[in-house]
Automatic annotation (TrEMBL):
Any matching Pfam family: DMRL_synthase
Entry binding sites for 5-amino-6-(D-ribitylamino)uracil: F23, S61, F62, E63, A85, V86, I87, F118
InterPro entries: LS, LS/RS, LS/RS_sf
UniProt organism field: Mastigocoleus testarum BC008
Catalytic activity: (2S)-2-hydroxy-3-oxobutyl phosphate + 5-amino-6-(D-ribitylamino)uracil = 6,7-dimethyl-8-(1-D-ribityl)lumazine + phosphate + 2 H2O + H(+)
UniProt key word Ion transport: no
Known pathway: Cofactor biosynthesis; riboflavin biosynthesis; riboflavin from 2-hydroxy-3-oxobutyl phosphate and 5-amino-6-(D-ribitylamino)uracil: step 1/2
Descriptive protein name: 6,7-dimethyl-8-ribityllumazine synthase
Positions annotated to bind (2S)-2-hydroxy-3-oxobutyl phosphate: Q90, T91, R132
Gene Ontology MF terms: 6,7-dimethyl-8-ribityllumazine synthase activity
Biological process terms in GO annotation: riboflavin biosynthetic process
Stated role: Catalyzes the formation of 6,7-dimethyl-8-ribityllumazine by condensation of 5-amino-6-(D-ribitylamino)uracil with 3,4-dihydroxy-2-butanone 4-phosphate. This is the penultimate step in the biosynthesis of riboflavin.
Amino acid sequence: MAVFEGTFTQAEPLHFAVVIGRFNDLVTNKLLAGCQDCLKRHGIDVNPNGSQVDYVWVPGSFEVPLVARQLATSGRYDAVICLGAVIRGQTPHFDYVSSEVAKGIAAAAFQTGVPVIFGVLTADTMQQALERAGIKSNHGWDYAMNALEMGSLMRQLRSSGTQAYPSSTQSLAPSLSNTAALGEFSTDTPPKG
Ligand SMILES: Nc1c(NC[C@H](O)[C@H](O)[C@H](O)CO)[nH]c(=O)[nH]c1=O
Ligand SMILES: CC(=O)[C@@H](O)COP(=O)(O)O
């Protein structure tokens, strides 16, 4: 049997895409800064003109999953980091946007086998969101850590001969079979070789 765990010390070969919602960009720009700071401190070249991180801006959180899935499907990235800020208003709109973006991001990961990081704040107030985007702590940093860990973990799983999905189901596989495929990595992970 084996134990697989992502590391943070050998990030040099990893490639990331970051999808950012422009809505509430007072918050999302701060999440992005935290995310870049973390990646940079782990040896990643975060320059948009470099070769390791691509950035895609979309109008709002609702658009994030579509773009995240397209990027994940490209096979160019070890992880896709999604950043957004959904802040409750006076109508039920918040519930629709936050629910769809959460489901959509999960679906993008399941459908592609690529880690898609849920970095969308869902806050009752702007104050709550800002506190989580740099005033108290910056969750952008945490989301980058999640991407580093998952990118590293998936590389390990691939090189050990285990794969989250058979390559034939790499894109747009039905969610049921994807869920079953993920079960391969429960505590019953088969031995290597
Ligand atoms: N209200 C918020 C939105 N709304 C915009 C949607 O995300 C979307 O862009 C629009 O409905 C067009 O499809 N987006 C956020 O990211 N945060 C919000 O609080
Ligand atoms: C997240 C939202 O939907 C929010 O910004 C919209 O505000 P409102 O419900 O007042 O229209």
